[in-house]
Q: What sequence folds into this?
């Protein structure tokens, strides 16, 4: 048999157990902090609670007169400030009880009158420290409606009479109670017909429950949430909307799997669950589960993530699949609800559980009639209350889960050309990404094209110049998959081409540097690494050298990055200049009767054919050169000595002298 405290904003329900006593004091501070910011819970076997609001009249059960008791003090995160929480035991007389084996740290005498037993009622005070400081023994206890609560466990001994326990916030930091400081207050629900009293905040924000195990365990105090509630692996979750708020959901892009997990109601064959997209109207509906569908049924949809969805349950009493007669039409936008007296009630309790996907989580939904536990991966769990008997606040008439599954993403290399010196294995990364982390093992796989996938890489050895198209697939455990294709062009290296100018003859006046242009190359792959000229220097496309003889062979080599070369040669014949030759008559004697002009032949010849015009010339002696002859008219007996010169374009020349005796 169970002892359970159920708490709703509309309803309090109590089920009791024989021979079990539970006393829970719930103490709250001033309204600025809220009605459930500070609580003290004490177990005992007596339900005698004095409900006066003066701190000196909060009573601990007589059980602690004879044995120790355990107390848990609960404080909300609202009290996480730099202020001490003080615990007080009063009306125990001058003798201090023991808290955790220690007498009171502070004793405050009061002006209160003697109590009926004649004791002066001092306040025995212990400093429980600050909620902000874990070293003071405060630890996280539970969460309710996004508020964290902390707890501190305390043992009490040395009680010699009935006394009171209460608390205050030491706002002035003097470690004693001062007028105006935030002291405890209590809200009490008493059930005279039962030996148990429950202390509950009026707004139902905090409640306690006890599962009876056959023993009056003084240390058992268990916190819980207002029923119904959902616990996922120890985490108590808040629904997307409470029972007085509209709720809409948005699903992920991809495939959605709607699973009917449970139907508790005897009306299960007439419940039809749908979603609608025409918000505030509710006519554009898509049926997900009909009355004939049973537990485990799965409906698959593909709904855009940009479409908000409303939820609707048709209680089809007459079985004609439309709303009429005595049917009720329940909408998550509450003002659309029809056929129910309670159109302000949220029939759909929706929980976002997407954070637990892939963790193997257990989902435990607790109601005041029965519990439901399931496992699996879901984005949403939806607990629905139907209206066949009016809202009964259990939300367990239909339970369904929605899993939004997005297909995996195939990640492949970009289309590209791979250059190789010779056919060699190439490896490129390929992988799968699954946003829902439910990829099947062994993927990606090749569904078309050559090669293999190993250690996250696609690998292939081409046969030569080749274009390959490869398609890979990634698939998840729900059968959704992606396929992507990439194209790789393999280009093998082609040799470079060296080009040299033709063989040539070069005439030189003297030994000097020769520069010959036209040493060029072409590479179809544009991967020339370097050029070489044997025995010469090259500047861009020009080779220069200083001849050491009459012949030169220039060897030009082009090498690419694959170490493939091409060679060409140019042969150079070098002619050096020779000086011209002077031709004059032999020395001679000419007899004349009387002086008359004499002409004798003189000339120049040049083996290189580069004689300067106007030569020969007379460099000394009489006469003149006319038409290739030296001409002269003597004055009488005379000896004429004549020297001529011939000169070429290289400034090389010759001189010759002849003598004529007249």
A:
């Amino acid at each position: 048999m169970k002892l359970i405290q159920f708490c709703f904003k509309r309803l309090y329900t109590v089920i009791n157990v024989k021979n079990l006593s539970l006393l829970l004091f719930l103490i709250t501070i001033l309204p600025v902090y809220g009605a459930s910011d500070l609580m003290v819970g004490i177990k005992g076997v007596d339900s005698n609670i004095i409900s006066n609001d003066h701190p000196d009249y909060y009573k601990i059960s007589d059980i602690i007169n004879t044995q120790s008791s355990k107390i848990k003090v609960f404080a909300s995160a609202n009290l996480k400030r730099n202020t001490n929480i003080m615990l007080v035991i009063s009306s125990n007389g001058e003798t201090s009880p023991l808290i955790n084996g220690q007498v009171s740290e502070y004793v405050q005498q009061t002006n209160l009158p003697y109590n009926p037993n004649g004791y002066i009622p001092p306040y025995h005070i212990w400093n429980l420290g600050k909620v902000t400081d874990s070293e003071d023994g405060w630890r996280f206890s539970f969460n309710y409606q996004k508020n964290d609560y902390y707890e501190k466990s305390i043992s009490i001994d040395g009680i010699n009479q009935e006394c009171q326990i209460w608390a205050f916030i030491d706002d002035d930091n003097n470690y004693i109670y001062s007028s105006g400081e935030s002291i405890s207050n209590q809200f009490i629900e008493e059930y005279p017909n039962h030996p148990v009293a429950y202390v509950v905040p009026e707004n139902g924000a905090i409640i306690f429950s006890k599962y009876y195990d056959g023993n009056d365990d003084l240390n058992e105090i268990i916190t819980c949430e207002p029923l119904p509630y959902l616990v996922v692996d120890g985490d108590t979750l808040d629904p997307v909307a409470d029972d007085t708020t509209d709720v809409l959901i948005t699903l992920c892009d991809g495939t959605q799997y709607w699973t009917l997990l449970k139907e508790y109601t005897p009306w299960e064959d007439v419940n039809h669950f749908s979603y609608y997209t025409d918000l505030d109207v509710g006519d554009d509906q898509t049926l997900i589960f009909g009355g004939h569908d049973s537990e485990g049924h799965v409906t698959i949809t593909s709904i855009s993530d940009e479409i908000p969805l409303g939820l609707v349950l048709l209680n089809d009493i007459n079985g004609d699949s439309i709303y009429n007669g005595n049917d009720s039409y329940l909408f998550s936008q509450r003002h659309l609800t029809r056929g129910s007296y309670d159109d302000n009630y949220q029939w759909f309790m929706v929980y976002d559980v997407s954070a637990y996907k892939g963790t193997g989580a257990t989902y435990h939904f607790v109601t005041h009639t029965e519990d439901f536990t399931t496992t699996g991966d879901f984005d949403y769990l939806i607990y629905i209350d139907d209206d066949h008997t009016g809202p009964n606040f259990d939300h367990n008439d239909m339970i369904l889960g929605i899993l939004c599954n997005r297909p995996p993403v195939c990640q492949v290399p970009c289309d590209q050309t791979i250059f190789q010196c010779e056919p060699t294995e190439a490896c490129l990364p390929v992988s799968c990404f699954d946003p829902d982390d439910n990829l099947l093992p062994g993927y990606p796989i090749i569904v078309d094209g050559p090669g293999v996938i190993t250690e996250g890489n696609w690998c292939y050895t081409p046969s030569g110049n080749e274009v390959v198209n490869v398609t890979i697939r990634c698939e998840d455990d729900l059968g959704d998959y992606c396929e992507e294709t990439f194209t790789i062009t393999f280009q093998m290296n082609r040799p470079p081409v060296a080009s040299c100018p033709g063989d040539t003859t070069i005439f030189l006046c003297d030994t000097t540097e020769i520069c010959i242009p036209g040493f060029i190359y072409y590479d179809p792959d544009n991967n020339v690494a370097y050029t070489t000229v044997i025995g010469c220097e090259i500047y861009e496309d020009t080779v220069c050298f200083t001849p050491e003889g009459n012949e030169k062979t220039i060897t030009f080599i082009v090498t690419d990055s694959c170490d493939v070369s091409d060679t060409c040669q140019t042969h150079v014949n070098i002619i050096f200049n020779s000086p011209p030759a002077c031709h004059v008559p032999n020395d001679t004697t000419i007899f004349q009767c009387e002086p008359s002009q004499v002409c004798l032949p003189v000339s120049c010849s040049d083996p290189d054919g580069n004689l300067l015009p106007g030569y020969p010339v007379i460099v000394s002696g009489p006469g003149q050169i006319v038409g290739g002859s030296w001409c002269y008219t003597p004055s009488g007996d005379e000896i004429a000595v004549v020297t001529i010169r011939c000169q070429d374009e290289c400034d090389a020349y010759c001189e010759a002298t002849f003598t004529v005796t007249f």
